[in-house]
Amino acid sequence: MYKSKIQIALFTLMVFSMPFITSNCKKDDGTNLIQLNLFSIEDDKQMGADVSKEIESDPVNYPILSSSQYPDAYGHLVRITNEILNKASLKHRNDFVWQMKIIHDDSTLNAFCTPGGYIYVYTGLIKYLSSEDQLAGVLGHEIAHADERHTTEAMTSAMGRDILVKLILGDSSVLGQVTTGLLGLKYSRGHETEADLKSVEYLDKTDYDARGAARFFEKLIASGQSGGPQFLSTHPNPDNRVEAILSKWESLGSKVGQTFDSRYTDFKNSLP
Predict the structure, then answer these.
(1) Mean pLDDT, residues 56-60 taken together
(2) What residues contact residue 82 under an 8 Å CB cut-off, 6+ apart?
């Protein structure tokens, strides 16, 4: 479990003799991104499955809504997510599970996606948003993190060399550290920017207005909201991200898509 190609990994360790393996060619603006990743696609899938089990075994911190009790709510979330998955150009559409879950917590404005495509959306976020394109924009951002494998890239950069060596050599004693660290891992500026721009690209292939994520940023800025998902509370600041998203939208042809306000109201009304 979590094994990478040993020859490549050991070659990397010989070339880079620094305390942490952080070498990469990523630009900080999120363009032309090429970053070292010592994990395989199977590693992403296994880590995502492990984190999903951990989340679902902790109903106190992660009270997941039952899909059988709230079929309409899940129907809306699955429909929105599948609109993106089935029309956007994803690298790992057929590799990852792309499983959707709703966490019943109205006080939390958040959504996240683990490696391997396990997507979690809080009811607080769904109820806060005004239209379906906004949620689609957020989901596009989270899907991008999984599809571009940002988590395992970040883990490769963040883990100490000693841990990586043990991992490469099959030392199972460090696997717990790897899995536990997933939920608290923060993305780099380049990762966040790439996820923002990928969200625009994804939604541009759908009927949604591709500026959905920017509309969410604008809503938070206008309300003076200081909290929100990690990708909204970290660098770069929301104003710059709105500008970058709009610039990307214009570069794609400035197609004005749908917001589906009334349909989104039905989604919110289907929640407890």
Answers:
(1) 92
(2) none
- Collapsing DSSP states into helix, strand and coil, what is residue 111? strand
Distances (CA, A) of 106 to 59, 124, 130, 148, 254: 15, 4, 15, 29, 34
Helix intervals (H) in 129-251: 132-147, 150-158, 161-168, 175-180, 189-204, 212-223, 230-233, 238-251
Least confident among 122-126, 149-153, 207-211: 149-153
Task: Please compute Rg for the chain using Cα positions.
Answer: 19
Distances (CA, A) of 153 to 38, 52, 87, 237: 8, 19, 25, 22
H helix or E strand, kind and range, residue 11:
helix 6-15
Q: Convert the pLDDT of each residue in 102-131 to its tens digit.
A: 999 999 999 999 999 999 999 999 999 999
Structural domain boundaries enclosing 188: 6-269
Question: Per the domain annotation, does 1 fall within a domain?
Answer: no
Count up the domains in the chain and report the number.
Answer: 1
Q: Give the rounded distance of the alpha carbon of 262 from its chain centre.
A: 26
Task: Give per-residue pLDDT as tens, 234-253.
Answer: 545 778 899 999 999 999 99
The answer to whether position 197 is within a domain reads yes
Positive/negative CA dihedral, 50, 144, 127, 206:
negative
Could you tell me if residue 161 is inside a domain? yes
Confidence bin at 63 (pLDDT 50/70/90): very high
**C-alpha–C-alpha distance, residues 54 and 27, integer Å:** 34
pTM of the prediction? 0.82
Looking at residue 47, its pLDDT comes to 86
Q: In angstroms, rounded to a whole number, what is the distance separating the alpha carbons of residues 249 and 150?
A: 23
115, 48 in Cβ contact below 8 A? yes
Contact indicator for 159, 178 with CB cutoff of 8 Å: yes
